[in-house]
Amino acid sequence: MNSVKLKVHLDEDSIIEYANCIAAPLQRIGGALIAPSTMPITFWKQSDAPWMDLPQSLIHGKQHFDYKAPLTAGMDLDCILSLTKVEKKNGRRGDLVLYTHSLTCTYAGQPIMTAETVLIAVGDN
């Protein structure tokens, strides 16, 4: 449907800041600081995804992550954020629109992580 490309550089400061925000312990592997498993949701802030420019707030529905290897400080990732599905449903508080997204990241040309996230818009859509 729609997709945007992102280049993401993971540095120790951003990993530490995110880990502190979610009260996650800092972990290292081979001396490299490991990003918390949910950190890729912050990559969206770097995108100009036109479908995310909505007048109403979004509710987080669900998410799923699949890793081939941990994300560590110093990595430069090439990512693609895609809107894969839009569903309209009726809810108790009004109409709902469910936006399903896929985030796929590679490191050194190899797949390293994918995530699927559903965001929900409530009200006039």
From TrEMBL:
<feature type="domain" description="FAS1-like dehydratase">
    <location>
        <begin position="32"/>
        <end position="114"/>
    </location>
</feature>
<dbReference type="InterPro" id="IPR029069">
    <property type="entry name" value="HotDog_dom_sf"/>
</dbReference>
<dbReference type="InterPro" id="IPR039569">
    <property type="entry name" value="FAS1-like_DH_region"/>
</dbReference>
<protein>
    <recommendedName>
        <fullName>FAS1-like dehydratase domain-containing protein</fullName>
    </recommendedName>
</protein>
<dbReference type="Pfam" id="PF13452">
    <property type="entry name" value="FAS1_DH_region"/>
</dbReference>
